[in-house]
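Tip: read the tokens left to right.
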């Protein structure tokens, strides 16, 4: 029921406008309150005003949102798995009561500020710092490639305090805090991506996430986000496969549909096989997650495999559509461009390879 509800929402409210938003480089803001009304923001979390659905159902939400566009799934994933999860897991009761109902209901927007211009794969090297100042902290530094940065009411900002990574809630319009959108993107165009700047930003004591200390805290959030990405990538692949199947059944060359040729059928068979395998991987992962048995290395395996799979499916579908494959009248090239970003963020393919390598060998290639 959850899957079908989200699929209907995407078909009726996202697909009619997503092409125009991708062209213009804008995010469909009207979907934010609708996502809240449908209970799709932080849907798997249990807290004030949150539905607490199971991990498999949540994964299907991510799958269906990304069938529409990666930018849509990214918005929901960041809002729930990164921002709301961080507040729920590391925050005070007052912070939870203030932010979780608003974020879950879509009346407030949040962002997760970890990545810096010089520190992406290596968050421990971050330069953003906080210093104690009276009854609060002064924050200085910058973050980049932050989803929803300029439209956020609150930013979960990670900075070093006395050399230890800590989490802070920085509210919109706080003096010294500014956000600037990145306009040069050729991927994830229907998503707001920003640079955040902090110049002597005063953060009160009550906005420190007290239970977040060290790099394990933001990485714990990223594990939640990566789980959603693994499911979302399946949705993008499904959209590309379905377009290729429909197109090749209708398109005729040499007097018959190109779907009747052996090479085309082989591609379709390979695509649906890889999609099915990836979805079964997600299903097993979701059941492990609900049982409290999921390991972060298993999430790395799924994110690494499924996004690369989706990229290959998208590239194959693009070729099957011929010249029409590069036209935005069809969704394939949009998904293909988006997936280039999805493979990079929240851990590159290479970083997840090394995470698995360390788990298998006990040897840390990054040490």
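Filled-in amino acids:
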């Amino acid at each position: 029921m959850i899957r079908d509800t989200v699929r209907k929402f995407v078909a009726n409210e996202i697909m009619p406008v997503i092409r125009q938003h991708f062209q213009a480089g804008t995010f469909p803001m009207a979907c934010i309150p609708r996502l809240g009304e449908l209970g799709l923001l932080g849907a798997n979390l249990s807290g004030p005003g949150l539905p607490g659905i199971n991990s498999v159902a949540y994964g299907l939400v991510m799958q269906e949102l990304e069938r529409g566009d990666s930018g849509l799934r990214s918005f929901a994933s960041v809002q729930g798995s990164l921002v709301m999860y961080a507040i729920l897991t590391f925050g005070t009761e007052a912070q939870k009561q203030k932010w979780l109902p608003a974020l879950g209901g879509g009346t407030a927007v949040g962002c997760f500020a970890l990545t810096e211009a010089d520190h992406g794969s290596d968050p421990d090297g971050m330069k953003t710092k906080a210093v104690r100042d009276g009854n609060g902290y002064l924050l200085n530094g910058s973050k980049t490639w932050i989803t929803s940065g300029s439209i956020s009411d609150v930013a979960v900002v990670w900075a070093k305090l006395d050399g230890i990574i800590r989490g802070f809630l920085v509210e919109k319009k706080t003096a010294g805090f500014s956000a600037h959108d990145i306009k040069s993107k050729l991927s994830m165009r229907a998503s707001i991506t920003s640079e955040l700047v902090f110049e002597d930003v005063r953060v009160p004591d009550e906005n420190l996430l007290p239970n977040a200390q060290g790099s394990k805290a933001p990485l714990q959030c990223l594990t939640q986000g990566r789980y959603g990405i693994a499911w979302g990538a399946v949705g993008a692949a499904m959209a590309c496969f379905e377009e290729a199947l429909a197109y090749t059944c209708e398109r005729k060359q040499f007097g018959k549909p190109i779907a009747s040729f052996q090479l085309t059928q082989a591609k379709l068979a390979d695509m649906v096989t890889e999609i099915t395998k990836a979805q079964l991987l997600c299903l097993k992962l979701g059941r492990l997650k609900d049982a409290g048995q999921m390991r972060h290395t298993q999430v790395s395996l799924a994110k690494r495999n499924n996004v690369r799979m989706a990229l290959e499916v998208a590239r194959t579908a693009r070729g099957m559509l011929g010249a029409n494959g590069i036209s935005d009248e069809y969704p394939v090239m949009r998904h293909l461009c988006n997936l280039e970003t999805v493979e990079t963020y929240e851990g590159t393919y290479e970083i997840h390879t090394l995470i698995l390598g360390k788990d298998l060998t006990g040897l840390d290639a990054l040490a």
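The longest helix spans residues 216-250. The longest strand covers residues 136-147.
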